[in-house]
Amino acid sequence: MERQPGPTDNLHATLNTLARQSLRPDKARDLLESVLVVSQGLDLDEALQRIVDVAARVLDARYAALGVRDTIGGGLREFVYTGISPDIRATMGSLPKGKGVLGLLIEDPQVLRISDLSRNPASVGFPPNHPPMRSFLGAPVLIRGEVFGSIYLTEKRTAATFTAVDEALIGVLAVAAGIAIENARGFERARIRHTWMELIARRGAEPLAGVSLVANLNNICADVAELTGARAVYLYQTEDSAATLRANSGWPGPVDSVTFGAAITETSELRVLSDDALPGWGDRDGGWLTVVPLVRGPWVYGAIVIHQDNQPDWEVEERTGLAGVAEIASLAIAYAERREIGRRLEMLEDRHRIARDLHDHVIQRLFAMGLSLQALTVQRDADDQSESSDAAQRDRLQQVLSDLDGTISQIRTSIFDLQSGDPSRNPTLRRRVLAVIGQVSGHAEVTPMVRFDGPVDTVVIPELASHVDAVVREGVSNALRHSGADRIEVRVAAEPRAGELTVEITDDGRGIDPGTRRSGLENLRMRAAEWDGDFTVGPGLSGRGTRLLWQVPLVAQKTD
Question: What is the spatial distance between Cα 178 and Cα 190, in angstroms, rounded to a whole number?
Answer without folding.
Answer: 18
